[in-house]
């Protein structure tokens, strides 16, 4: 257990219709009351951001609204893209960057990911930077090399002060949406390496303050064990974030592992 406030994000991906998004937001707002112990955010599809934000505002919920994607330029001829100002306008305050589906399905490069991290931080927003190795990289013993590389590229040019608004999500690609989870010990080992790398890139204070979420088939049945690990400070949740009872159970597991106030 650490002094870091646990942080759980729910990535809704390209799922749900408008009414389902509103119903899910409403159930989460009603069920989550541990905002002083746990930071929580959800990442709905773009068309539902405003509706979901209105539900949270009406219910005075501490759950933050996040965006799954954006383009780093302020405006212009970028057909199909969405700017940070547009997302701020609908109430989004945290941006997901570098998710493996954007890296490996949609072809985002480390350079683009770094541009996005810098733009979101310049805009005053929070960032969750996702990193993680593919199965063939893990089998070739390149897990640490891949994760520290993605970390260094993603954070290039990010200042010490800006790191207060950065969370890292370690998501082994082979565990996302597959039902396969890293063992809590494997995940802890990788989180520790990532935290050491933050120490090299920045300093010990920053390394100790940054939250590192685990993502990859995290669910109520394994959340307690994962979140009890020293360097696991929360989760980025996909499938289980679509079921209010499951996401609320994971938030509760995070609250159970939150530091006891002094
Ligand atoms: C994710 O998409 O970030 C994720 C962790 O998905 P799942 O929980 O479904 O593996």
Short description:
By secondary structure, the protein is of the alpha/beta class.
List the helices and strands and how they pair.
Elements: E1 7-11, H1 18-31, E2 39-43, H2 49-58, E3 64-67, H3 84-89, E4 94-97, H4 100-105, H5 110-122, E5 126-131, H6 135-139, H7 143-154, E6 166-170, H8 184-201, H9 204-209, E7 212-214, H10 220-227, E8 234-237, H11 244-256
Parallel strand pairs: 1-2, 1-8, 2-3, 3-4, 4-5, 5-6, 6-7
Bound molecules: phosphoenolpyruvate (PEP).
**Dominant shape:** globular
Helix content: 40-55%
The amount of beta strand, in percent, is 5-15%
- Could you describe the largest sheet, including whether it forms a barrel? 8 strands, parallel
Mean pLDDT: 96
Total helical segments: 11
List low-confidence stretches.
none
Structural overview:
The chain is of the alpha/beta class and 262 residues long. The chain has eleven helices and eight strands. Strands 7-6-5-4-3-2-1-8 form an eight-stranded parallel sheet. The two termini are 14 Å apart. α3 links the parallel β3 and β4. α1 packs parallel to α11, α7 packs across α8 and α10 runs parallel beside α11. Bound molecules: phosphoenolpyruvate (PEP). The site of phosphoenolpyruvate has 13 residues, from β8. Phosphoenolpyruvate binds next to β8.
